[in-house]
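Q: Here's a chain of 247 amino acids. Please give me its 3D structure as tokens.
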Amino acid sequence: MIMGFDEDLLALFDQYNAGKLTDVEVNSFESRLISDESFKSDYQAYQTIRSGIANTGYEQLRQNIATWEAKLSEEPSQRKSKNWFGLGLAASVSLIIMIGAWWMFLSKPSNEEIFASYYKAYPNVVSDRGDNNELNEGLFEYSLKNYQTAENKLNKYLKDHPENLQVLFYLGQSQLAVGNTEKAIHVFEELLKKGQFPLNDATEWYLSLAYLKEGQNIKTIELLNLITLDNNHAYGTQAEQLLKTIN
């Protein structure tokens, strides 16, 4: 038991945060947050601790606490009382959790770590490729996640077809995937200067991630805020979550 939570409750909170509950379960969970003050307080306490702990540290801490608690529960009551200065088991474990959470909160994940947790390469959705070999091969390599080869071939194609914004988007994607972040930023910024096109929302989202990876936090936050202001933005939810993570 951690901070008075049983393992089923912790598992429920973990599943809700990870988006693993069904729609029915989500509705039930959120209704309970509104109607059950105790449940709401438990979830808020869980969120406070979880927000300051990186995934690996969080799991390790939980495992350590479980081990300590098991050992404590096996000790004679007199020794347990002496070792923990009269604190109950739950209070003792809570104290350890809070100290650990506070320490790990001060060690916030780096921009690179946050980027890695949010980044997922955009899928290849280009259907009309024509008969150009460089384009076909470049997009084929992109689909295979051979991003460096894809970047090279798409660059060659774009020298003769600079007006193809969709391909330019995939060039930026390839560059971001291989770590050529500055080049990716330049490509995405140029795309956004062209005005609206079908992948505009995705361009804004990946540009915000590129800014984040490069440590350009002010630009990251400004762009994420713009995204959240658009109620119809395809990446509005992700932008809100990322803002909470980096603020």
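Q: Can you summarize the key feature?
A: The chain has a mean pLDDT of 81.
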